[in-house]
Amino acid sequence: MASERENNYRQLAKGVRPVSADCIFCKIAAGQLPAEVVYQDDLVVAFKDIRPVAPIHVLIIPRKHIPDLTAITPEDKELLGHIHLVAVQVARQLGLAECGFRLVNNCKEEGGQVVYHLHFHLLGGRQLRILG
Ligand code: AMP
Ligand code: ZN
Fold it and tell me: Tell me: the pLDDT tens digits for 68-113?
């Protein structure tokens, strides 16, 4: 049986984005699971976190399945820049741009990552405490 990586290469060759069958964020990006989407385009989707830890808690994900931040490659440079531009746009849209916000990625086990599809937390709407 073909590995997930081989399948992803085949999909890429056909112009299809790599997705992971068991990944909840791939399913949200594909519209197969419900989410409160606040922004989306060809490359990314931003939706409200189901268990918010701040008055505003949005997750920004690439549509492409990247398991965690260590899996990025030079070909993802533009995507990562785009995620930051989208984060600022969503922050503006939700009224956070003036007072400020936090954009954070949890990477792997000790970084506190639970869902293994790259995502950035956009947090705001109250004074945030120091990290760590
Ligand atoms: P992390 O610990 O960085 O992997 O964060 C994963 C985040 O995904 C958590 O804040 C969860 O509350 C959030 N989450 C998990 N499932 C869903 C879902 N179906 N819709 C929205 N947010 C989710
Ligand atoms: Zn995924």
Answer: 999 999 999 999 999 999 999 999 999 999 999 999 999 999 999 9
Measured in angstroms, how far is the CA atom of residue 110 from the centroid of ligand 1?
A: 16
Atom of ligand 1 nearest to the CA of 114: 4
**CATH number assigned to the domain comprising residue 38:** 3.30.428.10
For the stretch 8-46, pLDDT in tens is: 545 544 444 567 779 999 999 999 999 999 999 999 999
Is 2 within the bounds of a domain? no
Nearest by Cα to 83 from 58, 54, 113: 58
The dihedral through the CA atoms of 111, 47, 56, 94 has a sign that is: positive
For residue 92, what are the domain limits?
Answer: 20-124
The CA distance from 44 to 17, in Å, is 12
Within a domain: residue 131?
A: no
Q: Among the bound ligands, name the one nearest to the CA of residue 123.
A: 1
Domain count, the chain: 1
Task: Write out residues with Cβ below 6 Å of ligand 1.
Answer: 24, 35, 49-51, 59, 106, 112-115
**What's the gap in Å between 127 CA and the centre of ligand 2?**
31
